[in-house]
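Handoff note, outgoing to incoming analyst
You'll be picking up this chain. Sequence as last confirmed:
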Amino acid sequence: MKFIKIINKFKYAFLGLQYLWQREKSFRWQLFAAFFVQFIAYYWQLNKISWALLTIVSIMVLTAEAFNTALERLFDIVEPRLSGQVALLKNLLAAAVLITALGAVIVAGLILL
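Most recent structure output, in case you need it:
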C-alpha cells in the first residue's frame, strides 16, 4: 500500500512537470539553459564543485519558476479579476524568479569566465 502511495506522488510530480513544459514558455527556456550549462560543464571538464554549483543554481531557477506558476494559478482562482493586490503579488513572484535567475547567471559567469 505504501509503495502505491509513493508511485502516486511521483505521478503527480510528473503531471506538474508536464504542465510546466506544455504551458510555461519561461520554464522551457530555463530548462534549455540548464541543459546548456550542464553541457558546457561537461565539455569544459569542470571540477565537481563547480559543476555542482552550476547544477544547484539551475535547479533553483527551475524551482522558483514552478513556485511562481503554482502561486499565480492559485491567485487566479482566488481572485480572478486582476486586483491591485493580486497584481502586486504576481509582480513579486516574477521578481523572485528574476533574482534567482540573475544569481544563477552571476554564479555561472564566475565559474565559466
